[in-house]
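Standup notes
- DV: blocked on the single-chain target, sequence here:
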Amino acid sequence: MRRSSEFCNAELGSEAMTRPRATVVLVVCMSLMAGACRVAAPDPSPTRLVLVTIDTLRADALAAYGGPVETPHLDALGARGVRFDVAISPTPLTLPSHASLLTGLDPTRHGIRDNSTFRLDPTIPTLAERFAERGFETAAFVGSAILDRQYGLDRGFGVYGDRMGADGSRFDAQRPAAEVVDEALAWLASAGESFFLWVHVYDPHGPYEPPPPFDVLYGHSPYQGEIAYTDAMLGRLFDALAARFPGEGTWIAVTADHGESGGEHGERTHGYTVYDATQRVPLLMAGSGIARGQVAPDMARVIDLAPTFVERFGLAPLPGIEGVDLSARLQGERVAESPPAYLEALGGRLHFGWSPALGLRTQRFKLIREPRAKLFDVVADPRETHDLAPTQPQEVARLEAILAKRLADGVTVRSNLEAGDDQKARLVALGYVAGEPTSAWSLSLESLGGADPSVEIGPIDRAMRELRAGGAAPEAALAGLAAPEALDPQSNLAAAELALRAADPERALAHARASLAERSGYAPAWVQVGEALAALERTAEAEDAFDRALALDQSSGEPYAARGRVAEAAGDRAGAKEAFEQALEARQPSTEAIWRLAALRIEDGQAAEAKRLLAELPGWLQHAPGPVLRLARAEQQAGANRDALQRVRLALQHAPGSEPLRRALEDLLSDRPVAAGP
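- DV (later): unblocked, structure below
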């Protein structure tokens, strides 16, 4: 597999039980003349399965797949087992991909299509349930709130570790691999001889914040640093397994839910396209009965793991399963043709109103519809840059027919869950759309109308990145966006916020009102209208807009936080404090209100109260330019220059390319006032 230079340079980066399955004894006749036969020693039967899923890990990031990151522990696992050269995930999203992994079904069959507002149908059996039915101990430890038990993947697990953060804060949405592995090791210390253990590590999902020394190991790429850190943490797990359970009785399987685009095809992260950058994942398996040091060249799918485990561990079948047993390939055999892999990314349709991205991948070809059909020879063109659809209509038609049948046989895209307020806050803290607070909705995939996500995602991605980073170039990100009437409601919201940061309230108002033109009952759009009107000194109209937002969504703290920002900008500190406190008391509290209120407390000489507030701030926000600049300015005004310097220097370690942070450091060293940021 050729390495993508764009990616390599990207800023990414119970009691012991008897084996439940009968052992097959192979009798080999060695000499008919002598009338003698001998019995070949069978492979030891596995009694333990450890399934590791690494979030957001594209295959070609690893050195074993031709990539830049050295992962000695994963490499050692592959060396004593089988590495699948091509493994395909059905979707570039964490929750639906893991649902496929644990059921052996594609999203069209299990019904989970996004990271919120979906719950696994209780009539669909899971791999963990099958293990539990046969007497295996079962446990899972996950690293992200996206896999919270409310989504239904906890069924069958006797232990399901999904508590985020040491204190379980309402804003904690993820935890580092070290904490997940620690919890898994504590469980393993008293585990019996037969178990199914699932360990999910959220690193290297963004925002990328590898701890020392991994933060400098790959220089410009914190994504690659997080991969190296994850490998080191998994090494602890593998070593503990080998020490506690020596021999071949443990099967270990490592894969990922999806990859990361890293700027390819206009997408910086994942969720909106189905190119191999996000769909080709690593797959390594080792244990008894698995060939050693083999590379399986035939394509495998994430949905093939469940039927393989069912077969090898003698579990009851999973009805209607779409995956196939990989056992033969684990013993070094090749197959005539791998079944095609179904692909879907519905984020563009669900969040922006674009066309969904649907596809089908074979060993050689990839069909993508978004909405126009595109065809790629993924063997000759692994980066999928040369569309063959115009010259190979017969292949397009063949794959289209298979895809159409998959969609026709699938379930309707229908929401069946409204996430709780705490869960919404955690999803938003991770940068995800948490789903609107409405009743269940459904979506038809029969019509693929809408904008091409591969075209639309680039400008929106840049805008969202600028907003998240709190950088100094909102005008540049804004310039790449279309006029308000050409944008969808969600994109208009991003544009409105960028325009406010660029001190262009008239344009902000135009974008916010364009969003309301299509979604008049959408509270966040009314918040943006209010902020734009306040910037235009139309105070009474701004207050009316904030009131409308609160009337539409009384659970959200964002309208209160917006009021606080307006009051603070006008010099009304008492009004700002009251609004920020209301924002924190809401059922969906605002994280922005935390650091803004903390800054006001610092300026009032209430450092201890500010520290208590900041303890609830999600980790990545503690180093984001917006909060850091405001807090450093407050510390500077309170005479705590040493604290301000320490805060800015630490943030620069996480974002060394941030121009606003560099300027703030210069201002502090020169005893000039620090700009307070957005």
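- Follow-up: The CA atoms of residues 116 and 617 lie 22 Å apart.
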